[in-house]
């Protein structure tokens, strides 16, 4: 399997090189040259397999010859052996057609663990025996940061620098990052929002001098390996609900468009998906783009779903690449225009193409609270992000015989205040993070400027070997 850049100016890479590179040198994102497919019989054969074994079957075509099947199996078993639920990503039923796909049973209690536990092991595997070391630069609106830090803390060949928007993540989210005092972990609170953090990170990859001095890599979903690992749970849930013989819809609380893009890939690979419902909070650029062709940024509004307070969604570029007929030149020109003007219009033909796979909804604060209360009445305490997805799922116009699965992306204990405000009770902090609120924190606070951030990193990172 070869990976090509959405902007067409970087050399195609294999899985190992694409994983270590993170972002393509031309500013584009790596995508597989062609989508691998599974036959109906191959999907049927996933029934009854463990999560780790399902991961082996789904990831094998993406990994290609970068790992033997036995090595891939060993990594999947190690990664998913750390989850607190035997099913890794279990389904919970809310009523006759609504389900939650619980993605928060990993070490940091959010869906990011599903991919990052795997990515941490892949990095270690690809770096072992060599003299390379990676400087990981990442941006987080709350959950990627802690999952990535958990996955790479104390690894000899890696330094991680994680940028989060100061004061715009929950206390639990911040502490999950800043109380990890390992020498190779560097947390930076930037005086800006998530979009600025993400733009700074992307600029580092594109800066010849900086990228030449340090071997940069990514843990955000710009890294293809992140997304590949997230495809697995769509198949795992779909097969449990009757795929390939039954069509299923998924509702995905969306920020950076990574999670829902993984669902799109699952559909391309053959999973029968009626629609992927892109559920946004009031930071609704993706809903406007898909429903009205208006892909234009506004000011980011802080909400009770901070992990989704995003306007510029990295992975939307991967969908735009397909919507531009995989014409990298056309996409590169469109992205250049968007980067300078903050506006892009999707044509009617592009919207029609997208609407075969995606529906979308914007959910405001009241909609989120209603969904939390409805789930609570059905016996489930859900986090605010999941509630955005559930609200969109309940409003979606899906055929009556199609089950609708909402991705439960975080444990409700990560957002205790918002949960209590909505349903009058808090979810207890699970044992995994007990004592978190008493631990010592360490992080730097810096202005959101390229010079300040790269200067800080340059003083601490190990240069290229
Ligand atoms: C809890 C939670 N829900 C939803 C999202 C949005 O996911 P994505 O950025 O992949 O669209 C995030 C952040 O990524 C998150 O942390
Ligand atoms: N909500 C995310 C934002 C980063 O998304 P990613 O999937 O690209 O890592 C977070 O929790 O940090």
TrEMBL record:
An annotated GO BP: threonine biosynthetic process
Keywords of the record: Amino-acid biosynthesis, Lyase, Pyridoxal phosphate, Threonine biosynthesis
Highest taxon of the lineage: Bacteria
Tryptophan synthase beta chain-like PALP domain boundaries: 89-329
CDD domains named in the record: Thr-synth_2
Catalysed reaction equations from the record: O-phospho-L-homoserine + H2O = L-threonine + phosphate
InterPro entries: Ser/Thr_deHydtase_PyrdxlP-BS, Thr_synth_N, Thr_synth_N_sf, Thr_synthase-like, Threonine_Synthase, TrpB-like_PALP, TrpB-like_PALP_sf
Pathway: Amino-acid biosynthesis; L-threonine biosynthesis; L-threonine from L-aspartate: step 5/5
Presence of keyword Amino-acid biosynthesis: yes
GO molecular function per UniProt: pyridoxal phosphate binding; threonine synthase activity
Residues with the N6-(pyridoxal phosphate)lysine modification: 112
EC number: 4.2.3.1
The protein's enzyme class: lyase
Domain Threonine synthase N-terminal per the UniProt entry, residue ranges: 2-80
NCBIfam families named in the record: thrC (TIGR00260)
Family: Belongs to the threonine synthase family.
Protein name: Threonine synthase
Lineage, highest ranks first: Bacteria, Pseudomonadati, Pseudomonadota, Alphaproteobacteria, Sphingomonadales
